[in-house]
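FORM 7B: Structural annotation worksheet

SECTION A. Query
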Amino acid sequence: MGKKKKINKLRENTVRSVNNNIRSSVRKLNPILKGIVGKKVDEAIRDLLFSEKRITKEIRKTVSSAVANAENNNQYDIDKLVIKEAYCGKKIIMKRFRARAKGRAAPILKPYSSITIILAETKKMESHGSKS
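SECTION B. Predicted structure
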C-alpha cells in the first residue's frame, strides 16, 4: 500500500532548476516569484536585474541555471522559453537568541527557503510578416 507515483503529462517540454537553502523567508520570496511567472526568460532576468531586493540575485541565478539546463540538456531555443511556474518552500529555521535586560532572552529566527523554477518552451512564435 505505497503511494501512487504522480504522472506529469507536461514533463516532456519542461525544464526545472532548484536552489536550496536560500537565506530568506518564503514571505519575502513569494511576491518576487509571482511577478516573473508567465514572462519570457529574458524579460524576467531583466526585471530581476533592476529590482532593489537583495534576494533577486539568487532568483536570477536560479533562472539562469534553468535556462542553461534547457539549452544543454534538452536543446531548447532560449528565445522561446517562458517561466511556467516559480514557487518556494520552507526549509530549516536557525534559532538564535539575543540577550535582553533582567536576564531575559529574545528569539531571533533565521529562516531558509528553497526556490523551484520551471521553464516551458512555447510552441508558436509570433511571425512578423510584412503586409503588401
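SECTION C. Observations
Residues 56-74 form the longest helix (19 residues). The mean pLDDT is 86.

SECTION D. Sign-off
Analyst initials: ____
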